[in-house]
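>> received
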Amino acid sequence: MTRIDPQEERSASPLIHAFYASPMTGQEIEERSFEMIDQEAPPHRFRPEEWEVVRRMIHTAGDFTFMDAVRFSPDAIPAAVEALLGGRPIYVDSNMIRAGLSLARLQSVNGDYRPESIVCYVADKGVSRQAREAKLPRSLFAVRKAAPILDAGIAVFGNSPLALLELNRMIIEEGIRPSLVIAMPVGFVHVSESKREFMSLGLPYISVVGRRGGSPLAVSVIHALCSLASQQTAVAEKMEPRNEEGGRTIILLGHGSRVPGAGEDMEGVASRLRGKYGHPIVEICYLSRWGPHLPEAVEKCVHRGAQEVIVIPYFLHAGLHLVLDIPEMLQDESRKFPGVKFVLGKSLGFSEGLVDLVQRRIEEAMEFCDVREVILPSREEFPVPPGQYEFIPLLPDEAKKYRVNTSPTGE
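>> returned
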């Protein structure tokens, strides 16, 4: 064996100079890496679109050996492409995945993707409090909080097998139906069985069986799926709502709140309207606070080919907002787009379904603790924006001055 003199080794030219002599861009390096993967990969069973995903995983891990552990459900790729083109929200089980996902890649598939479209609750204060009280991992309560997003959304697990087990329970017992699950938690406890159980449930998935997995692999899968979906944007253009529903789009208009995440339930409803009832475009917006607001949602619908915009007020009671504010705002918007039909639907109001929901909440409340045991967040966490005010109730005598008399007798 030839020995290298340390002095000679130190005096050798740094290797980076070889790169300087034949430089490449980052994109060129990535393309060359994929060429090398294709050349060096052993024979495999993957279909071309599946190989696009697997080779990006290989690129991320620098490892061919886990190829035998990658599994696709038969409908995984079509389901993934449909979900991404539809802008479905993405639940991730770690903030590492959230930080690693490229918003630019997601927006190349669907321009509606925003930072809040990628949701992670493991650091949520309410989730942390529940975990401490129950002496259980936060991941369990985080995935429960995400139920409205998980139903018809995309679920990505690269960290917590317990979170995947809890999703399995929610699928079995609560009827949650994600559009796609990336099942790649890593570790030693409950890891293999969490994946086996999920893959038996008949939903679209991409998984790495056994103990292997991890957040970087999960991120690489979503990025590969974005590449596949972007290749089908021409197909997505042909599926614009004017071809499916005469250009009809839906807007859910809520009140708005300065509490972070307050609109997630409404986003869950929008997601279910897209997935369960086949409305291709359902936007959400808010009357006040942070937005997006009605003009933004209307402009987005019209830009996507809307010939009819149906606005559903996400309100229970017929107050001044429903009687005057919202109709005035919608009339203002209609003047901007004379060729588009605008319809204001009814608020949620009364229905037997609402009665059933209230009864369900009553039954759930029977298991709750006394309210005096509830630990409340500090009001300072939710500052009032300049020029806005807290809710101020009117005392009965004061309210009489402003109440409109609707009695037929005028009394």
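>> The chain has two domains: 28-237, 241-344.
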